[in-house]
Amino acid sequence: MTDFKAQPPAGMEPTGASTQGDSLYQLIRDDIISGRLQANERLIVADLAQRHSTSTNPVREALQLLRGEGFVVISPNRGARVRPIDQNFVRDIYEIGVLIEPALTRWFVGMATPEDIVQLEKVQAEIEENNFADALRHSELDTRFHTIMYERHYNRHAAELWWKHREVLRAVSRRYNFTLARRAQVMREHRQLIQFIKDGEAEKAATLVAQHVEGSGRHVLEQMRAAEAARAG
Amino acid sequence: MTDFKAQPPAGMEPTGASTQGDSLYQLIRDDIISGRLQANERLIVADLAQRHSTSTNPVREALQLLRGEGFVVISPNRGARVRPIDQNFVRDIYEIGVLIEPALTRWFVGMATPEDIVQLEKVQAEIEENNFADALRHSELDTRFHTIMYERHYNRHAAELWWKHREVLRAVSRRYNFTLARRAQVMREHRQLIQFIKDGEAEKAATLVAQHVEGSGRHVLEQMRAAEAARAG
DNA sequence: CTGGATCGGATTATACATTATTTGACATGG
DNA sequence: CCATGTCAAATAATGTATAATCCGATCCAG
pLDDT grade, residue A35 (50/70/90)? Predict the structure, then answer.
């Protein structure tokens, strides 16, 4: 049984935080993602420090990190607030993905070894086997699939950017389900992608990935819209 | 006399820092850019606090900010170091620019008003008038030129990313001169770009911008290589 | 509506405790 | 003698605690 916790691409943890700052970052981020913290809610340093029984310094550090990832907005002298993860936010990130991922893919096609293909096929087999039964697991596997392609890219900046965005998107989409249509499409595109990589069809692979990411974004945005409509109606 | 200090696109200061943290950020960043701080030099919190006569807290904050912009590398329990702004670093950033800027441009072409065109032409006129005589001024004007195109883009993430990268690149290229060939090319491309925008030729404008950014990156990298060779030889 | 008074909380300043890393003296095995 | 390993002191990072200031928002009297 393979574990299916998504790992950040080798040698690129989001670090820059100290031990405690880092775990605080995790905790607060989870609170934001899970919705325990409302959108736009104020994040009061003293409160957070007390709630997690630390002093204020680590809290500030964690907030800075969260700001960097886009989960929190800080305005000088007015403190931090939970960033509302709204449709615009998600759209922005997907759009950047549509621009960057094809480039990462194009490079990967030129560099892929037979072992890489085996890896991809193995993960894809797991995805098919799981067949969306366990949503969380699907998310992790899907992330692993793309990580295999991107993690060795020479452009560390681009790969890092991708990973950061990926984490946000994973957090968001965790709240929704895949429609049947989307499930079929994901499978189709992954299989097709593997084929293109095998054939060394860099351009086709890149185009496909652009579609894949865009489709994924469109799907999540639909879900968000639907959920919002439900809430309003 | 227009001032030619490059302004961040409206409503998007990179900050999130407090007054003092912010000015420290500026100061340290300048020290890094100007070379007063060596590559990989350790940034000791207590020292910096003393040098700038503040306490350690704002210094920590400033370092976090600098880390976010890529000027500083922080490793847990080992503190902060000046990030060597090497060729890979610069290449990575330009490559991302080549992916993102064309998309921003494409949108701008569809949205540009006559006033925008006037603005662009005015800045371009200033650029031509200055004709690279004052390098710093050229840099600011060139930045302003592109800011006009990007600052109103609906994708705030993308625009912000562009701006952050722009600041780094401006810092780096400040150290070098434009070759004659590059000067001519920049002028040509700007003029051509304005024309495409006037004609509503979004695709052509996008392609041209990709070239423009790539050319700019290539040029800076050449300079860096040359400088390094000179240092070694 | 306008100019303070007030309040919450961010920001800054200190001082100190704790912990991890680095350094250099010294010892040991080859 | 040199390479390697060990250990303790020195160095800084990190975390805690507390107080002083400063800023922005709100309330209130005029």
Answer: confident
* B71-100 tens-digit pLDDT: 999 999 999 999 998 999 999 999 999 999
Residues A141/A123, Cβ–Cβ less than 8 Å: yes
Give the pTM.
0.91
Contact A96 B60 (CB under 8 A): no
Strands of the sheet with B79-82, listed across from one edge? B42-43, B79-82, B72-75
Domain spanning B19-82: CATH 1.10.10.10: yes
* Residue ranges of domains in chain B: 19-82, 87-232
Is the predicted pLDDT of residue B1 greater than 50, yes or no? Answer: no
Whether B192 contacts B206, CB under 8 Å:
no
| Closest C-alpha among B143, B191, B145 to residue B168 | B143
B96:A57 CB<8 A: no
The answer to whether strand C lies under 7 Å from the CB of residue A79 is: yes
Q: In terms of CATH, what superfamily is B87-232?
A: GntR ligand-binding domain-like (1.20.120.530)
Check if residue B75 sits with its Cβ under 7 angstroms from strand C.
Answer: no
Contacts of A158 in chain B (CB under 8 A): 92, 95-96
Q: What is the pLDDT of residue B9?
A: 67
